[in-house]
Specification:
The protein is α/β, with parallel strands linked by helices. It has 13 helices and 15 strands.
Length: about 425
């Protein structure tokens, strides 16, 4: 007998997160003997706790199709709500809602924290006698889910599109810097990445032959602000200009950091930024060229724009969503769908599964061997790894009256069956 499904999302969005959502939906709809009604948890696990379940089965098929080129997480929402071990009432509430709506399949799209949540919910359901299949769908622009050997997952959906965004932005920034260098010789561009430099490293994809005066600073470099300034001045003496690709997690001083429920720094919500501190420091010192350092911090734009979607990333995001549904139907609970790279000279991906317990709270750092000897660049090995992920063509974005046409789900919510509930963390 077919059983009902809840799909939820957690954490920061990505340009292709909705295509993973579409993949899960399409695969579930293709197997009506296994999967019944499809519900979207409105704003992630918070939507489950508050019993706010969007009826995906009632949505127009055209709107579901448009998820392919709809970025970010507006379709069903996301959240940064952490289910801690001590929040027993929250866990019991999740199971209560699942039982009330005959939910037997739970898909959680997200990063390492989300996989941990899915794993915990699976265990709680088993303790309470609920036969629940919990399956993870990977998502994070940071590419930090997995292991150092890339055996758990080769790369996460979302990374390829953000890498392409930065490859294109750095190309354009180079034109600006080349033209304006007589007055603005230094351009400092801040890129996302709390502790891990995969996103910052993608700046090199704009210039694989190393013709630009580009320097890359990520947390793994271990460099201090003084060294950064010395390196910039050395480049100014050589080229008369310099572009600094700066990870937001680079240690530049006190940011007055704001933090989310998981304890992660929210850089764009903090009092200042690494980019501003670096610009201030460079301008307070004597630059080896006329003019000033300028700063740029695109913020959330890199993860919520569809214009730079990688065709490879889009395709893989969809296929890994479909794979998750296939795993749930065939293999039961406790797995995350994954993307692995086939051996050989050309690029090809295959889709498999990895235990949720193995991937939960995993964190992959940028390989040290992919850092150049001077620690302000990356190696050709990284370029060979990342370049295939950004694709070689533009994704066609549908337009309506000259502006982008995104998926718009109707706010059709399932009638509530449980008593009202206030999530435990709301009281803190």
């Amino acid at each position: 007998m077919a059983r009902n499904v809840i799909i939820a999302q957690s954490g920061g969005p990505s340009p292709v997160i909705n295509n993973s959502l579409r993949g899960v939906i399409d695969a579930c709809r293709a197997d009506p003997a296994t999967f019944g009604k499809l519900y979207g948890a409105w704003h992630g696990i918070e939507g489950v706790l508050k019993e706010e379940l969007l009826d995906i089965s009632a949505q127009d098929p055209e709107e579901i199709r448009l998820l392919e080129t709809t970025p970010a997480a507006g379709a069903i929402g996301t959240c940064r709500y952490k289910l801690r071990e001590t929040q027993e009432r929250d866990f019991k509430r999740v199971v209560e809602v699942f039982k009330a709506h005959d939910i037997r399949f739970f898909f959680y799209i997200g990063g390492n924290d989300s996989m941990d949540t899915a794993n915990k919910i699976s265990k709680q359901a088993a303790r309470e006698g609920l036969d629940l299949v919990a399956t993870g769908v990977p998502k994070t622009i940071d590419n930090d889910v997995g292991d150092r050997e890339f055996k758990m997952i080769d790369h996460t959906p979302g990374y390829g599109s953000v890498a392409r965004y930065w490859a294109c932005c750095i190309q354009n920034a180079n034109e600006e810097n080349a033209g304006a260098c007589t007055s603005d010789p230094v351009l400092v561009i801040q890129m996302m990445g709390r502790k891990i430099g995969f996103i910052t490293a993608s700046a090199r994809l704009a210039d694989p032959n190393r013709e630009m005066p580009l320097q890359i600073y990520m947390p793994e470099s271990g460099l201090a602000l003084e060294q950064l300034a010395d390196n910039v001045n050395d480049e100014l003496k050589r080229s008369g200009r310099c572009i600094v690709a700066l990870c937001e997690g680079f240690e530049a001083g006190d940011l007055g950091a704001a933090r989310d429920a998981f304890g992660h720094i929210e850089y764009d919500a903090s009092k200042t930024s690494a980019q501003q501190l670096v610009v201030n420091y460079l301008n307070a010192r004597s630059l080896a060229a006329r003019g000033y350092a300028r700063g740029q911090s695109p913020g959330c734009d890199q993860r919520d724009t569809s214009l730079f979607i990688s065709s490879v990333d889009s395709r893989e995001a969809y296929q890994v969503g479909r794979k998750a549904a296939e795993i749930a139907a065939a293999d039961g609970s406790g797995w995350m769908a994954t993307i692995l790279r086939e051996p050989g000279r050309g690029y090809a991906a295959r889709y498999d599964k990895v235990p949720l317990v193995q991937v939960a709270n995993s964190e992959r750092t940028f390989p040290r061997e992919w850092l150049s000897a001077n620690r302000i660049d990356v190696t050709d090995e990284f370029i060979r790894y990342a370049m295939p992920l950004i694709g070689t063509e533009w994704v066609k974005i549908p337009l309506e009256n000259g502006i982008q046409r995104f998926a718009r789900f109707k706010k059709i919510f399932v009638p509530k069956k449980c008593p009202p509930y206030l999530p435990e963390a709301y009281k803190q």
